[in-house]
Amino acid sequence: MSKPRLQIIVGSTRPGRVGLPVAVWLHDRAAEHGGFDVELVDLAVVNLPIFDEPHHPRLRHYVHPHTKDWSTTIERGDAYVFVLPEYNYSFNAATKNALDYLHQEWQYKPVGFVSYGGLAGGTRAVQAIKQVVTTLKMVPIVESVNVPFVAQFIDDKRADGARFVPNETIEDAATAMLDELEKWAGQLRALREPAIDAVA
What we know:
By secondary structure, the chain is an alpha/beta fold. The protein is 38% helix and 18% strand. It has helices at residues 19-33, 43-46, 65-75, 93-100, 123-135, 168-192; strands spanning 5-10, 37-42, 79-85, 110-116, 139-140, 145-147, 154-155, 163-164. The two termini are 25 Å apart.
């Protein structure tokens, strides 16, 4: 059986965001973990407009090319990690919009969170998004990575661009999250694959 595909989704789309170097670090960390095929999905590149489909997403009757492309991208994922900023005690609009575009594509897949911010480390964003992902029948795992005062971990003096430099606590949290995602990805796959009737 092939490795599950883990998609790391960069939630922030604003210029100057620190979410991208955090996500690049996690992408490399997940590749080193060895349990996944890893894909970085950047919502700033995907560039979805505010939800504009005329039909409910559960019907999968998409009319716009950007929606069809987004559906294809998310369909191939077996597990997700959202890299999230905290905006006003919640998660950001681009992430909510991206979730709302689809329905069945998200179902029965585990999801982890890497959040960042000030003192709270983005934890209030994670609490808010859990209500949304469970409604989409995703399975949020307990293990997460929460980065308080994220600026202290950003090395922006490098010639090749800003880099996220985690401490040991953050590294350990990432390992625990990835281990748990790998377990759930394997177990939930059976719920998404049609049952094969035994031949008598």
